[in-house]
């Protein structure tokens, strides 16, 4: 009997490991990610759900898809906490992605302020998924603060540069007892597959799909790549050698 393989976050189970970011928002993007990519979780900025606003994101997200509001625009822990409270008040649930960025050029997360916000919100019952720069000490502090997972960046947001921080993400996967969701910068399905082969728990992608020529096809490609990478990780990747090794025996042929 095949063992059920699910992603568990805050007591919630997900069969899909593809999470859609909503930075480049469009109805077609959400539709493609959910229907073709199999995404069961969609991130959203609180500004997308303001009352009376045109193109309210909540109007386009299926009811069986989990919302992951983020604290984008927060510059410190206090602002992130305030945004999380507003998110809960408008009915977005207890999931929250912490994003604290004071740098407007590179949009790198402030790990120290993220840890502070995580500790406060975890104590208040939020399922906290912090976006962070892949640093082992910060990751351990986030785990101690009550994070449900950690979300290290692969490369700067929106760049599609891929796994620029691969070695550091691998350290987190090996050393931190939390799901590691690779977030930001994944530009190709092959890169998502590689991250999953490393042992990542899930992939968050947005720009790579949103800027593709064919949104549904690219969403499908990401979904399939993520599943393939996960299966490869579970199967156990083949060994790597420095010297050649014949795949067939070199004796007992040609009449010997």
Automatic annotation (TrEMBL):
Major localization class: cytoplasm
CDD domains for this protein: ThiG
A GO MF term: thiazole synthase activity
Sequence positions that bind 1-deoxy-D-xylulose 5-phosphate: 158, 184-185, 206-207
This protein's record includes keyword Transferase: yes
Keywords: Cytoplasm, Schiff base, Thiamine biosynthesis, Transferase
Pathway(s) the chain acts in: Cofactor biosynthesis; thiamine diphosphate biosynthesis
Known catalytic reactions: [ThiS sulfur-carrier protein]-C-terminal-Gly-aminoethanethioate + 2-iminoacetate + 1-deoxy-D-xylulose 5-phosphate = [ThiS sulfur-carrier protein]-C-terminal Gly-Gly + 2-[(2R,5Z)-2-carboxy-4-methylthiazol-5(2H)-ylidene]ethyl phosphate + 2 H2O + H(+)
Pfam families: ThiG
Gene3D superfamilies the UniProt entry points to: Aldolase class I
Stored InterPro entries: Aldolase_TIM, Thiazole_synthase_ThiG, ThiG
Localization terms from the record: Cytoplasm
EC number: 2.8.1.10
Root EC class: transferase
Domain Thiazole synthase ThiG intervals: 9-249
Active site: 97 (schiff-base intermediate with dxp)
Family to which the UniProt record says this protein belongs: Belongs to the ThiG family.
Subunit comment: Homotetramer. Forms heterodimers with either ThiH or ThiS.
Function noted in UniProt: Catalyzes the rearrangement of 1-deoxy-D-xylulose 5-phosphate (DXP) to produce the thiazole phosphate moiety of thiamine. Sulfur is provided by the thiocarboxylate moiety of the carrier protein ThiS. In vitro, sulfur can be provided by H(2)S.
UniProt-recorded name of the protein: Thiazole synthase
Record organism: Megasphaera intestinihominis
């Amino acid at each position: 009997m095949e063992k059920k393989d699910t992603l568990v976050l805050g007591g919630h189970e997900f069969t899909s490991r593809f999470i859609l970011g909503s930075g480049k928002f469009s109805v077609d993007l959400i539709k493609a990610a959910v229907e073709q990519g199999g995404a069961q979780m969609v991130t959203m900025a609180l500004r997308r759900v303001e009352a009376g606003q045109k193109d309210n994101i909540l109007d386009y997200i299926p009811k069986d898809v989990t919302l992951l509001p983020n604290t984008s625009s927060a510059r410190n822990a206090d602002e992130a906490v305030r945004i999380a409270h507003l998110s809960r008040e408008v009915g977005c649930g207890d999931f929250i992605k912490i994003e604290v960025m004071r740098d407007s050029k590179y949009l790198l997360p402030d790990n120290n302020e993220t840890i502070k916000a995580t500790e406060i919100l975890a104590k208040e019952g939020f399922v906290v998924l912090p976006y962070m720069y892949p640093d082992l000490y910060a990751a351990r502090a986030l785990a101690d603060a009550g994070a449900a997972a950690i979300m290290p960046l692969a490369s700067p947001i929106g760049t599609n540069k891929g796994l620029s921080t691969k070695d550091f993400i691998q350290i987190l996967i090996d050393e931190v007892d939390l799901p590691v969701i690779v977030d930001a910068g994944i530009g190709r399905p092959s890169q998502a597959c590689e991250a999953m082969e490393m042992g990542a728990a899930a992939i968050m992608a947005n720009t790579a799909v949103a800027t593709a020529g064919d949104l549904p096809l690219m969403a499908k490609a990401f979904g399939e790549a993520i599943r393939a990478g996960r299966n490869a990780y579970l199967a156990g990747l083949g060994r790597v050698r420095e010297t050649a090794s014949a795949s067939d025996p070199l004796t007992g042929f040609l009449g010997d």
